[in-house]
């Protein structure tokens, strides 16, 4: 069985973060492992509190995994401080070889900041060059590039700028723009649009976590990057179509393997 590791924050409400990542790995038939970087007190409506995990125990979690278990792909989510970014990047650098998917989590859907403002520079300098692909949403790409993104042309300009920052590949998610949710893939040379159809629902908590974990799971299963993204886009579209109307805020995506099989999702 293939394996994937998520390095991210815990969402007590189960919709985003580590919880969404592990559910996504399972739905792909991939064995999931986790390094928890922060514990959030969170539900579908709000983030009530955040406790960062001590960097020493973050490093120990990474070492415990790599000293014993195979890691076929890594997904990085919420790393909120410079110290945590330094720890994760230096530990992963030592254990090269597996593909890394970086979801540069900055703000929760409910509006809570999950990345300290002074940590954006560290994310760009330490994590972006380490990743095989980075998957910002529109506000995150704006923060990384300083470019205001309102149109698909702006998305192309921003993707190119993110590659100039050292990213090998970029998937800029278009979910935050009006119209259909088309995502732009740029490999430093060519662009490709992964097109979606908007599902009119408020239940989109954890969509970015789910998408990046699905890319990691598909990479762990030895798909090439383009195919991994293509399948992940198919997966997130279904996970939103069947998202759960639970809680009073943004409900979570749906991860049941049998449902996807019935709908013809090709793993
Ligand atoms: N309403 C929707 N219907 C269909 N697809 C959507 C919808 N909203 C977002 N998507 C798709 O879901 C994926 C995640 O995009 P989004 O822009 O929501 O990421 P995100 O903001 O990082 O997510 P989050 O921070 O909530 O985890 C993208 O492929 C995007 O195109
Ligand atoms: C621990 C954690 N990681 C990531 C997100 C982003 O997800 P969303 O934007 O859907 O709130 C989150 N809310 N919590």
Automatic annotation (TrEMBL):
The enzyme's E.C. designation: 2.7.1.49, 2.7.4.7
Pathway: Cofactor biosynthesis; thiamine diphosphate biosynthesis; 4-amino-2-methyl-5-diphosphomethylpyrimidine from 5-amino-1-(5-phospho-D-ribosyl)imidazole: step 3/3; Cofactor biosynthesis; thiamine diphosphate biosynthesis; 4-amino-2-methyl-5-diphosphomethylpyrimidine from 5-amino-1-(5-phospho-D-ribosyl)imidazole: step 2/3
GO cellular component, one term: cytosol
Keywords of the record: ATP-binding, Kinase, Nucleotide-binding, Thiamine biosynthesis, Transferase
Flavoprotein as UniProt keyword: no
Keyword Nucleotide-binding: yes
A GO molecular function held by the record: phosphomethylpyrimidine kinase activity
Alphabetized InterPro entries for the sequence: HMP/HMP-P_kinase_dom, PM/HMP-P_kinase-1, Ribokinase-like
Organism listed in the record: Oikeobacillus pervagus
Catalysed reaction, written as an equation: 4-amino-5-hydroxymethyl-2-methylpyrimidine + ATP = 4-amino-2-methyl-5-(phosphooxymethyl)pyrimidine + ADP + H(+); 4-amino-2-methyl-5-(phosphooxymethyl)pyrimidine + ATP = 4-amino-2-methyl-5-(diphosphooxymethyl)pyrimidine + ADP
TM helices/strands, residue ranges: none
Name by which UniProt lists this protein: Hydroxymethylpyrimidine/phosphomethylpyrimidine kinase
Record-linked Gene3D superfamilies: 3.40.1190.20
PANTHER family from the UniProt entry: HYDROXYMETHYLPYRIMIDINE_PHOSPHOMETHYLPYRIMIDINE KINASE THI20-RELATED, PHOSPHOMETHYLPYRIMIDINE KINASE
GO biological process: thiamine biosynthetic process
Boundaries of every Pyridoxamine kinase/Phosphomethylpyrimidine kinase domain copy: 11-254
Similarity remark: Belongs to the ThiD family.
